[in-house]
Amino acid sequence: MKSPIEELEVKGKAAKAASRRMAYISTDVKNKALANIADDLLAKKDELLAANQIDYKEAEKAGMTAALLDRLLLTSERLEAIAQDVLAVAALPDPVGEVFDMRTLPNGLLIGRKRVPLGVIGAIYESRPNVTIDISSLCLKSGNAVILRGGKESINSNSALAKVVQGAAARAGAPDGAVQFIENTDRALVSHMLTMSDIIDLMIPRGGAGLIKFIKEKAAMPVVAGGIGVCHTYVDKSTDVAKAVAIAYNAKVQRPTVCNALDSLLVHTEIAEAYLPLVAAEWAKAGVEMHCDGKALSILKQNPPLKLVPSTDEDWGKEFLSLVAAIKVVDSLDEALAHIEDYGSGHSEAIVTQDYSAAMRFLNEVDAACVYVNASTRFTDGGQFGLGAEVGISTQKMHARGPLGLKEMTSYKWLIFGSGQVRP
Fold first, then answer.
1. Which residues partner with 415 through β-bridges?
2. 27: closest CA among 116, 140, 132?
């Protein structure tokens, strides 16, 4: 009997072999695989939800936080949305084989680049079963093989979903072994995966700060990782108050347990007295706890009943992942920019303003993957950006930044056409 590490090596070699064929299979085969996945997610909905309930009840019993429980949960509606995302990926142009930047050099060489898959993607992730489908779909469409290693807390959900993907891809004619799933939850396998640079071309971690830090420090192959999402919305002195209320409400309340939800609300002092009571009243309806600096507290304590807490230094730069938000009143756009520079995580930042110059300064000076003017940060998502889905949201600056879609799952090779040229 093979040991878990030996089984991992076998699956890795199978993925490597499959990746060579994946690099040139037809777009029709890829799209058929994705259509099959979408169909099977709905056809096997009861089976998938039953598997998820096993994980959910175990996690609940173990004391998992509400934020992580929400990420773990699958519902009929969420499965239907995941299936639609898969079809959206199928509808996108196939990036593989695109030839670009073709030009003729003075010596007559015709030179350009052709988009090619990366090879084998390793994905290590926690809690979110939808990641199994998102990453598999994007890897299949971009011509990559993938090795999936989900967390112990979602093993039943991920295993059931991976079987759906594997069966659907095989029926379409995708290479055997293109989608590998690691069933064993022994943490030693994560450490071993990180040494497999001869097999895995890129590692993508999805999870908490601890997991991401561990993988970035230990991986022998390149890593594209997101950090935590500490997201600010700054309400400028020149603002449409109604829009600013709606944007802050959506960014905080629509789904507070995810990385693109609002964590800190910055409000210009000239608009604070008019704006803060209105947004606080809306947040209060959803049960938001507000950690306020001195100025915000002095304005809002006159408007009971609100969940008000004096802010501490720990509130700035904190990803709450819950119905909690920090509020700070600032004296200027400069102060808002400085605060975001100090406490932002490079994920998503927004300004709400009617001042064109302020908007342009914010866009130019804020260093983040996604910078918004007059819109909710909740749009930072591969599906919302028209990418179909995402394998993650990168807060790094190399190779890919923001939601990682199909093109971010590819590299390129140079093509050079000559007519007998030799180098002098």
1. 112
2. 140
Q: Which two tokens stand for residue 298?
A: 């002095």
Half-sphere exposure of 393 (CA within 13 A, CB side): 26
Could you read off the pLDDT of 107-164 as tens digits, one per residue? 999 999 999 999 999 999 987 899 999 999 999 999 999 999 999 999 999 999 999 9
Asked if 155 contacts 55 with a C-beta cutoff of 8 angstroms, the reply is yes
Strands (E), 98-222: 99-104, 110-117, 120-125, 145-149, 179-181, 202-206
Summarize the confidence of residues 94-104 as an average pLDDT. 97
Average pLDDT over residues 308-330: 96
Could you give the count of Cα atoms lying within 13 Å of 248 in the half-sphere of its Cβ? 36
Assess contact for 125 and 149: CB atoms under 8 A: yes
Domains of the chain: 4-224+404-417 (3.40.605.10), 231-379 (3.40.309.10)
CA-nearest of 137, 186, 194 to 161 is 137
- What burial letters (b/e) apply to 204-236, b meaning 16+ CB within 10 Å? bbbbbeebbebbbeebebebbbbbbbbbbbbbb
| Long-range contact set of residues 16-19: C-beta below 8 Å, sequence gap at least 24 | 16/119, 16/120, 16/145, 16/199, 17/175, 17/177, 18/145, 18/174, 18/175, 18/176, 18/177, 18/178, 19/117, 19/119, 19/120, 19/144, 19/145, 19/178
Kindly tell me the sign of the dihedral angle through the C-alpha atoms of 391, 393, 396, 402.
Answer: positive
Tokens found for residue 52:
């998820």
CA angle centred on 113, ends 112 and 114, rounded to 5°? 135
DSSP-assigned states of every residue in 336-396: HHHHHHHH--SSEEEEE-S-HHHHHHHHHH--SSEEEESS-GGG-STTTTTSS--S-EE--
- C-alpha distances out from residue 152 to 127, 128, 156, 355, Å: 8, 11, 9, 49
The count of other CB atoms within 10 Å of the CB of residue 293 is 19
- Two tokens, residue 234: 């700054």
Residue 116's Cβ-side half-sphere holds a number of Cα atoms within 13 Å equal to 15
Q: What are the tokens at 58?
A: 């175990």
What's this model's pTM, rounded to 2 decimal places?
0.86
Strands 99-104, 110-117: pairing is: antiparallel
